[in-house]
Amino acid sequence: MLDDWGFQMIGTKELGELLRISPRRVRALLKAGRVEGAFKVGGTWVIPLVDGEPVIKTSKYGPKATWEKKLKSPSPTYIHVNTKLFGKKDKDGEYVPVITVKKSNQNIYSRRVVIPGPCTVVYDFENAKYGAKTWIETFVEPMTVGDRLTYAEIQAMMAA
Question: What burial class does residue 30 get, using C-beta atoms within 10 Å of its C-beta: 0-12 exposed, 13-18 middle, 19+ buried?
């Protein structure tokens, strides 16, 4: 909620959800005066947010605050063309897909990939990603159109 001056204020329940801590821990922080700008109106705590975050004073004692750990940023998806498969045909005489979408522990080969958002084309000869010197990085989920095969499936298609 925004007050008359445009500051965002929340209560103890919202603070607990925001910091992923229990309401009891929130009350302990408030009682110790560690939440900057917090004040009581009647029996209710009102907590100001600065840039969408509460300002919590650090303490010398006790365990480190869990809310200070930043969430892991999403890992990028890498898309590159596997030149080793250029011109390779499967048992039916069809060319095998050479575009590889690599995300976390998964490799998907496809003939066409649509990237529905921002992406970056990178050329780095010295620091190759997955053996590729040129690749596309994106944080949006790319859509593979047509074949969705693994490298083992492509190998089996060529061997048969």
Answer: middle
What is the domain class of 8-58 according to CATH? mainly alpha
Q: Which residue is listed with tokens 């048969």?
A: 160
Q: What pLDDT shows up at residue 5?
A: 47
Of the candidates 96, 108, 99, 104, the residue with the CA atom closest to the CA atom of residue 156: 96
Whether 149 shows a pLDDT value over 80: the answer reads no
- Work out the number of other CB atoms within 10 angstroms of the CB of residue 100: 20
Q: How far apart are CA 58 and CA 21, in angstroms?
A: 16
Share of the chain above pLDDT 90, in %: 1
Tokens linked to 88: 């390779």
The 3-state DSSP class for residue 5 equals coil
Domain boundary assignment for the chain: 8-58, 77-159
Round to whole Å and give the CA distance between 77 and 36.
40
Strand partners, 112: 145
